[in-house]
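re the bet — no i am not wrong, look at it urself. input seq straight from the record:
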Amino acid sequence: AGVGFKINVWPNRHMAHPYDQDDLCPLTPDPNDDSWGGYNLPDKGCQKPEDRVYCLPPTGDDFPWGGMWDAAWWNGNNPHWDENGNPTVPAGSILFGLYDGGMAPRDGCDISRTEYCNNYDIDNTCLGVRLYYALDGDDWDNKWEWDSPFVAETYIQMSKFCDDEAVVCINTTDGSGDDEAGICYDNWFTYPDGTPFYNDDGSEQLWFTHIILQVVPDCDYGGQ
């Protein structure tokens, strides 16, 4: 039960260079292939965009215990693993949106986008998202808590989904210099200390193994 949020995780910034969800990634990527090299990751692997739907309590009254926790997902053809054999997600950009699924209830979410936007405090709540990276088997097996050590986080004011934009796309690293600049927001994912997330090697992906999404109360600072 709750209000639905759908997320789409893309392997590159600005939702670029994906293999669609219906096609298999190449079994033997060809580095000389003109279609972005037959791969879309620095290790010359490929990743398809993946999507999930999460039903969240609409008010944030249970924060920080009212969110949804999830382990990483992967495509079976060319998965990516950490040093302990656990699947990891390469995220270059993530699209967030309120989810109706055609009509509520759907996928367990019983509050429609219209009902949520018209009846809840969208100006003082945010969608909070934290991404985590499991360092050992215990981290993988145990359910993580909101305040567990995390890789990066972002907050999106709920009114942005209702008043301004139906969906919000955020690059996990700075894509302001890309050819597609302006499609997704930059510098909204930050380290725990609040500075924008970046990769020293300039690569696009933020790799994570776990995610928590929450409705955060008393929050009016989402984005920039």
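see?? The longest helix spans residues 113-119. told u. also The chain has a mean pLDDT of 84. so pay up
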